Amino acid sequence: MSLSSTNLRVQNGRYSLKEKTAIISDKNDLSMNDMLVTKELHLLSVHHRRGQNKVIFEAIIPLILCSFCPFFVRSVVYICTHANGSLLDFFKQISTQMTLKQVLEHFFYLQWHWPSAIIFFLFISYSILMTLLLPGEKYHGPVTDYGHVPEYKDNGFSYYLISLGLFVILTAGLKVFGLTPTYIYDNFEQFLSTLNTFAFIFCLFLMLKGKYFPSTREYRSSPNWIIDFYRGVELYPRIFGVDIKLITNCRFGMLAWALLSAIFCMKAFELYGYADSSLVTCILTVVYLTKFFWWESGYMKTMDIIVDRAGFYLCWGCLVWVPALYTLPSYFLVSHRQQLGPTLTFLVLLLGFLSIYINYDADRQKLHVRRTNGNCFIWGSQPQLIRAKYRLLNGNESESLLLANGYWGISRHFHYIPELVLAFLWSCPNGFHYVLPYLYVIILFILLMHRAHRDDQKCKLKYGQYWLDYCEKVKFRVWPGIY
Question: Cross-referenced PROSITE patterns, in alphabetical order (predicted)?
Answer without folding.
Answer: STEROL_REDUCT_2 (PS01018)
